[in-house]
UniProtKB/TrEMBL annotation:
PROSITE patterns: ADH_ZINC. Belongs to the zinc-containing alcohol dehydrogenase family. The keyword Oxidoreductase applies. This is Alcohol dehydrogenase. Keywords: Metal-binding, Oxidoreductase, Zinc. GO terms for molecular function: oxidoreductase activity; zinc ion binding. Its cofactor is Zn(2+). It comes from Candidatus Desantisbacteria bacterium CG_4_10_14_0_8_um_filter_48_22. It comes from the Bacteria. It holds the Pfam family ADH_N.
Length: 346
């Protein structure tokens, strides 16, 4: 098969490699679509502690089952599926409590196992056993199914920092993750959604798609003042920081209402993980600050149904589709934050 093999840091080779074969408890899928994620950019430039090169990366993926291991009875050839890439052990304390994203021995497709930037992919036994393989509703395209993965992470995020009917929600960062947070907040009944984005071009792109009710560029407008104006001086019920900027995390504490919820959804750079804030704000306003990342297999199932039922309009965020040999162009497109989701169709 053809695969985009990441041979080492910043070195993709598009080449022929042996076709994957399923073990007795495994599947092989023909990749239908694999979206490029921000973490693919990080891995391309800096590698990852769980990646031993050479590795086929790509973890936001869907495809058709073309081979079924002899002991697998739950799936059959020809089924269209999405694969939740975070593969839990199914046995540790957190897995048993239903928090598979927190698994003590979490492994991941595109990291520990070869991923979706290839024609075919082996679905490891652990993924088959732990609910990571989800059959697609008939009306879902492979492209939409691929971006169920980032949506699943957003669903996990809003489980811990819930949006309730009538809430005012601020999202900082207009990338695909920020957009999905806004979409989900709206579908949960938020009364007003406010998007903050410092890059005017990206803010304009979000306006074209209509992701929020109110758009603020904090470089040219006082975000705290605007949020207070929009909420009768109360602040936002939920603030989601969907970017990797410490200053934005600090500012979120000034935006939130009493008893509100803040989610630090974007991780900070490894060399700059500290922020400063007035701890008394938390003490007196009784708001909560959580962080979330990743998702459990059940979030992927929910994401697929929300897209299938039209509650989340996934299609409009697909702004570029490229063949496998244009993988570098895909990586660069995402790195330059051009458009929303870029998808590779091997
Ligand atoms: Zn991703
Ligand atoms: Zn586990």
């Amino acid at each position: 098969m053809r695969a985009a093999v990441l041979e080492k840091i910043e070195d993709f080779q598009i080449k022929d490699v042996p076709d994957p074969r399923p073990g007795p408890e495994e599947l092989v899928i023909k990749i239908g679509a694999c979206a490029v994620c921000g973490t693919d950019i990080k891995v391309f430039h800096s590698g990852h502690k769980h990646i031993v090169f050479p590795r086929v990366t790509g973890h936001e993926l869907s495809g058709e089952i073309i081979e079924v291991g002899k002991n697998v009875s739950a799936f059959r050839k020809g089924q269209r599926v999405a694969i939740a890439p975070a593969v839990p052990c199914g046995e540790c304390y957190y897995c048993r409590r239903g928090f598979q994203g927190m698994c003590d021995d979490l492994t991941a497709i595109g990291y520990h196992y070869d991923g979706g930037f290839a024609q075919y992919m082996r679905v490891p036994e652990r993924a088959v056993r732990n609910g990571c393989v989800n059959v697609l509703p008939d009306n879902l395209s492979y492209e939409e199914a691929a971006i169920a993965e980032p949506l699943a992470c957003v669903i996990n995020g809003q489980e811990l920092s819930p949006v309730k009917l009538g809430d005012i929600v601020v999202v900082i960062g207009s990338g695909p993750i920020g957009s999905f947070h806004l979409e989900l907040a709206r579908s949960k009944g938020a009364s007003k959604t406010i998007l903050s984005e410092a890059a005017q071009e990206r803010l304009d792109a979000a306006k074209v798609l209509g992701t929020a009710d109110i758009y603020v560029n904090p470089a040219s407008e006082d975000l705290v003042k605007r949020v207070m104006d929009e909420s009768s001086g109360r602040g936002a019920d939920v603030v989601i920081v969907a970017c990797s900027v410490g200053k934005a995390q600090e500012q979120s504490l000034q935006l939130v209402a009493k008893r509100g919820r803040i989610n630090f959804f974007g991780g900070l750079p490894k060399d700059k993980p500290f922020i400063n804030f007035d701890s008394n704000q938390i003490h007196y306003k009784e708001f909560s600050v959580v962080g979330t990342h990743g998702s459990a297999p059940r979030h992927n199932q929910t994401a697929l149904s929300l897209i299938s039922e039209g509650k989340i309009k996934a299609k409009k965020y697909i702004t570029k589709i490229l063949p496998l040999d244009k993988i570098l162009e895909g990586i660069m497109t995402v790195e330059k934050a051009q458009g929303f989701k870029t998808i590779i169709k091997p």
